[in-house]
Amino acid sequence: MTAEQTNDQNTGFDRIESERVIRASAMDIFAVLTDPQGHVAIDASGMLMDATGDRVAAVGDTFVVHMDREALGDFPLGEYDVTVTIATFVPDVEVSWTILGRLRPQIGHVYGYRLEPTADGATKVTSFYDWSDIHPEWREKNIFPVIHTSSLAATLGILDRTVRRGYPRETPRT
């Protein structure tokens, strides 16, 4: 497992990544990542409580995640909802999304996963969090990243365990 930060000369660090080889097919992993309940199942932060919506299948698809930020103990936001909007969708290769929440202006950070099959049938999964295009108002507040590389790595560990245990039971194709 590796973790890295990429550096933008004007803004400092603006992206973090963590990767892990998971002994499962890209198709099975992608099925978890495109299921709203899959996001809840693999969340290492403790903030994702539930989700509402259908499996995503294209850029622009959305679902709602019911959050509770109290798990982080940083901002007393309590329970709230965010809308996840798919920004990148390449079946079994990459999925990324932005989040529409209560804050205005919208932040503009992106979360996602890249999947690369390995020669032995496993999949290298890279989780990323990118705030390079956040709204200037949020950049000035200097609060990013709001999660850290260790959170990405922990979620990858849970993803590994979740897929190995057979979630989801069916791998739907649209």
Write up what this structure looks like.
Helices cover 21% and strands 37% of the residues. It has helices spanning 26-33, 36-42, 136-141, 149-164, and strands at 2-8, 12-22, 48-52, 62-68, 79-90, 94-100, 110-117, 123-130. Strands 1-2-8-7-6-5-4-3 form an eight-stranded antiparallel β-sheet, with helices on one face. The longest helix is centred in the C-terminal third of the chain and has 16 residues, at 149-164. It is globular and about 45 Å long. The N and C termini lie far apart (32 Å). Mean pLDDT is 85; it is low at 1-12.
Q: What is the topology?
A:
Layout: E1 2-8, E2 12-22, H1 26-33, H2 36-42, E3 48-52, E4 62-68, E5 79-90, E6 94-100, E7 110-117, E8 123-130, H3 136-141, H4 149-164
Antiparallel strand pairs: 1-2, 2-8, 3-4, 4-5, 5-6, 6-7, 7-8
List keywords for this structure.
8 strands, alpha+beta, disordered N terminus, globular, 174 residues, 21% helix, 8-stranded antiparallel beta sheet, 37% strand
Strands side by side in the biggest sheet: 1-2-8-7-6-5-4-3
**How would you characterize the largest beta sheet?**
8 strands, antiparallel
C-alpha Rg, in Å? 16 Å
The percent range for helix content is 10-25%
Distance between the termini: 32 Å
Coarse shape:
globular
Beta-strand share of residues: 35-45%
Structural class estimated from helices and strands = alpha+beta
How do the SSEs run, as a string of H and E? EEHHEEEEEEHH
Query: Mean pLDDT across all residues, rounded?
Result: 85
Number of helices: 4
Query: Would you count the extended β strands for me?
Result: 8
Report the uncertain regions: 1-12
